[in-house]
Design a protein that fits this description.
single chain, alpha/beta, Rossmann fold, 2 domains, six-stranded mixed sheet, four-stranded antiparallel sheet, 11 helices, 10 strands, 22% strand, ABC_transporter-like_ATP-bd, P-loop_NTPase, ABC transporter ATP-binding protein, ATP hydrolysis activity
Length: 264
C-alpha cells in the first residue's frame, strides 16, 4: 500500500532519515521501533507531508505522493496522529470528533443562511456518527466533557476516534502509548486491532513498549541512524545482531567474546 524508496531528510549536516526504504502492506499493523534519534518520527512527518523530503519517493498504491501536503493526503485517506495529542481543549469530546468531516454544509455561508434544514440534518448525522465512535472506543461516558480535561490516554483514544470520522485507509500512530496507563493502553490496542480486522484499516505504529508492539504488530521494522536495520516478527527483530548493536551499543557476539576472555 505504501512504498518508501531511498528517502532522505537532512537538517543542515544532520541526516535524520538517511536512505530509508520500506514497504507497508495493505491491511497490516506494522510496528516501527528503534532507539531515540533513529529517525522514526521524521520518517512519519515526511510520509505524512508535514516535512518535505530532501530526496527519495513515497508511493501509495502506485501513485507518487512525495511532498503532498497533509490536507491532500487526508483526502486520500492517509492520516497521522502525534505523540502529544492535539485536541481542541475547550470543546467537548463529541465536538472534537464532529469537527473532522470535511466539506460540511454549515461551513458554507450560503448554506448556513438559506439551507438551515440541510445543515441541521447533516449535523445530526455527524453527531450520531461521533457518538458511535465514542461508544466503539468505550469513552462515550466522556462525550460531553471538555477535551482538555480528560486523561492522556483518553486523549489518545480521542485522536484515534478522529481517524474514524473520515474515510481513513492508512493511519500512522506516533507513540500512541506514551504517558498512558496500562488499562487504557490495552483499550487502545483493542481498538486498533478491531479497526484493522473489522474496518480494514492499515496501521503503522511507532512505540517503545515492546509488549504493546508484540501484541498487535506484525511485521516490525527497526530503524537506527536514519536507516532501516531489519524487518520481521518481533522475535526475529529481538534476535537480530544489528538491532542489538543499535540498542545496546554492543552485540551478542562481542558479549560472548568478552565473557570467554573473562573466563581465561
Amino acid at each position: 500500500m505504501i512504498r518508501v524508496e531511498d528517502l532522505h531528510k537532512h537538517f543542515g549536516g544532520f541526516h535524520a532519515v538517511d536512505g530509508a526504504s520500506l514497504s507497508i502492506e495493505k491491511g497490516s499493523i506494522t510496528g516501527l521501533i528503534g532507539p531515540n534519534g533513529a529517525g522514526k518520527t521524521t520518517l512519519f512527518n515526511v510520509i505524512a507531508g508535514v516535512l518535505p523530503p530532501t530526496s527519495g519517493r513515497v508511493i501509495m498504491e502506485g501513485a507518487d505522493i512525495t511532498g503532498l501536503p497533509p490536507h491532500a493526503l487526508f483526502q486520500k485517506g492517509l492520516l497521522r496522529t502525534f505523540q502529544i495529542a492535539h485536541e481542541f481543549h475547550t470543546m467537548t469530546c463529541r465536538e472534537n470528533l464532529m469537527m473532522v468531516p470535511p466539506r460540511q454544509s454549515g461551513e458554507n455561508l450560503w448554506s448556513a443562511w438559506f439551507e438551515r434544514g440541510k445543515v441541521r440534518l447533516e449535523e445530526e448525522e455527524i453527531r450520531r456518527r461521533a457518538d458511535e465512535v465514542l461508544e466503539f472506543l468505550t469513552i462515550d461516558h466522556i462525550a460531553d466533557e471538555k477535551a482538555g480535561m480528560i486523561s492522556g490516554g483518553q486523549k489518545k483514544l480521542l485522536e484515534l476516534g478522529r481517524t474514524m470520522m473520515t474515510d481513513a485507509r492508512v493511519v500512522f500512530l506516533d507513540e500512541v502509548g506514551a504517558g498512558v496507563n496500562r488499562t487504557l493502553l490495552n483499550t487502545i490496542a483493542d481498538a486498533i486491532v478491531r479497526l484493522n480486522q473489522e474496518r480494514g484499516y492499515t496501521f503503522v505504529v511507532i512505540e517503545h513498549d515492546m509488549d504493546f508492539i508484540g501484541r498487535i504488530c506484525d511485521p516490525v521494522i527497526c530503524m537506527a541512524e536514519g536507516k532501516v536495520l531489519a524487518e520481521g516478527t518481533l522475535d526475529e527483530i529481538k534476535a537480530n545482531e544489528a538491532v542489538i548493536e543499535a540498542y545496546l551499543g554492543t552485540g551478542l557476539k562481542n558479549k560472548v567474546v568478552k565473557e570467554e576472555e573473562a573466563t581465561l
